[in-house]
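Trying the structure run again after the queue cleared.
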Amino acid sequence: MQKYNHLHISKIKSWDVRFPTSEQGHGSDAVHGMVDYSCVYVQIFVTGGDGEDVTGCGLTFTLGRGNEVVMTCVESLKGALIGSNLASIFDNFGDFALTLCNDNQMRWLGPDCGVIDLASCAILNALWDLWAKLEQKPLWILLCELPAQILYKCGIWKYLSDEINRDEAMEVLEVDNLVSERLGHVTDQGLKAYTTTCGWLGYTDEQVKNKIQTFMDDGWDAFKLKVGVNLYDDIRRCQLVRDLIGPQGKLMIDCNQKWEVTEAVNWVENLTPFNIYWIEEPTAPDDVIGHKKVKDRLGKHGVRIATGEVCRNRVMFKQFCSQKAFDICQIDCARVASINELIPILVLCKKFSVPVCPHGGGVGLCEMIQHVSAFNYVRVAKSQKDCLVEHADHLSQYFQTPIKCTRGKYILPEEKESLCGYSTTLTSEALAKYAVSMSE
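Done. Tokens:
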């Protein structure tokens, strides 16, 4: 990356941005109730000549209150970056990311989890966006074109060597003779998706029905419904959705960590007549053993176990994979340490044959997961079997390059959209209307 040796980080702005999604019930579930989707938004500016007009933009996602805590953490971390040379960062991106997440004093707030990872993620997402914009490519294309050695150096591999060593990872990441075919396929055909937009817990039956019908008219056939507060309501709503989508449609349910282990099994067994494709986050997100118990008992009903959106780090994913405690991995692009931690997680899932269906929704999550899902298909999993990308586009209009979805598929940003980067640049309107504070 010597071509960026002349560029240095000159300034970092952070914004506390909050959208009043609770007013319409968007994002409502069994645990979090009514929420206001929010983000800490980071802008990285560079100086030094050619390229200094490019700004890297990244974010991490919260539900409203607490956004200011993450922003304070960003402020504490960003001082170490000012003056840094971009070439030195990108040449050793994995080491840089690990160091950022493990500041010798700040790591006590984690380590590798919570506010420190959320703050680090926002900064690292902005750096990946910056790199892609400097290369004048959407991030998914940049990632698909990087040599395996560079991809490996971008990853955070610490604590994973007992399950995945360097040679195994390199074998997964190496370009094979079908990579061009997969690249062309995903460019032409897009990524298969399911939508959560229809199924929030705060929606009335009529809202659910009308929204599902609208999506079905556009060719969608996979839907997720929030459950977990009242079993009889869940039975009624599942029956409503199944009647609408027919026997061939996919129906997923999500209780957002609501239940005890035995309660999860008993509750979902009452819903199995509706042919449930997966139950998402059936119990405490850190309980690997609990998820394994639920998986073993519900597997006989054909119900898959999906989790990962609040899984705190690569080590937790290592445990879920090695213990065969889930069927579906749901990475989150604003939870772990950006692409740097996602690369090892994707490689782990490839080794253990776990499909990756990223968590979408929130603020900017759908914009980011399309890039990661395309990269996973082209360079890591090398298959789209059982892989679905979540869709929930309530706030996409506030991004300069919003997602494009039609007929149940994501249509990826094209190479001509050279400044889309990681698709994480908010519009000036969004900042003017919804930012509650800014620091630089």
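The chain has a mean pLDDT of 95. Worth checking whether this holds up in the mutant runs.
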